[in-house]
Amino acid sequence: MKVSIGIDGADSPRGGCTTHVLYRLFKGLLKEGYIERVLDYPYLVRLNPSIPFKTRGNGAVAIKFELRRDPEDLLPFVAGLVEDYLKELSGGVSDVGLAVAFGDYDRELVDLYHEALTDYVHRLRIVELVEGSGGKLILPMGLSRGCVGAIAAIGWPATRFTYELLVYRSSSLPPREALVDLGRLASVDFNPRYRTFCSFDADAGRAIAVPRGPDPVLLGLRGLDPDRLFEALNYIGISEYIEGWMIFKTNQATGDHYVPRASRDMKPFRTGCVAGEVVSVKLAVGGDVEVRVHDGFGLLVAYVFKESGLTKMARNLVRGDVVRLCGAVKYWEGIGGVLHVELLEVIDLAELYLKQNPRCPSCGARLKSAGRGKGFKCVKCGYRTKDLQPVVQRVDRDITRGFYVPSCGGAKHLTIPKPLVSADITTSTQAPVRRISDFYYLSTATLP
Questions:
Q1: What is the CATH code for 263-349+397-413?
Q2: What's the rounded Cα separation, in Å, for the pair 153 and 46?
């Protein structure tokens, strides 16, 4: 029997990580003989970034496998393991969600994934799904806010994906900065063999792959090939004891939340893209840029923040340009919904013209107006004329048509960063399930 388990909300300001729970659960399921065959890499699914009560990492996880033992034994085992993990955090977690789907019911949850990715989902929606599943969708720990993410992770169709290898620090060691060779970490993205991306922000001199928070993740390597990620980990090296590591298939860096919408539908707590004509561009306090766009349905207020690295391009927009703006909508007091821009596409550029007085045919200086209806005069040599007309010249723009996305340092989890603008993340990264973690490796000889 096919089983899908989803978890969300198991991290807190005091520590913990939802991916770490799944690492422990996967290990426990194998040890106790529950897994006959793993059907795919574990899922790490990032959800709507505009929801105000999202967890620290805004990520849910799921694992899918063929069940070997009795499903009635499975539910208390999974719930017990998750509860034991939460006890280690000494409180601080109240909305953890645990969901289990049986058979192919995960295919019925794809719509819920897209809703949780791009909009607000009420708990009543979860109640409807559970009650209408005929026992194929169960919440072993009851209904909570985290159940939205847990079920959404199960429903993720995984049509666009990247991978991330997460290394977990040993619980016997105190939290500290990871003992990682930063020189090798900074160079790994430049080696095409490993197919990694956004490991290091060269502009800021910051290791993106090394988390700063109190969670158990020591290192997170993102890439397009799971087997190459394991090779990259060996290349970088970690000079301390670790609990283990696991590779996740994930919707990170895919832009999966960029759904087309009309401006009137860009309500707070939604994500999406609006294409329209620029009405105004204004430099805000602190270097951010306000862009107002009309798409024929209404006016959209959008902000491009300095941290995104896109403000230089946004400042060069003018009234009449046609653009597509993508991101998440958040509520601003006094304004309402404001789009926080993550991606800027310039579709068409308005033509700019500069009107100037002609030059003096005698000395070459720029002529001045001699007064209304009196033509022009040259203050340098005294030349006067009524025969010349102002000169109109087309102005070259400091921006071109195309996509503009943040650098690795300014990209959110779901945002497509610069290294992946031209990458094919729909088919080229598909790989058979082989080496998933430090405790699970399926040799090529046993693959079907």
A1: 2.40.50.1010
A2: 8
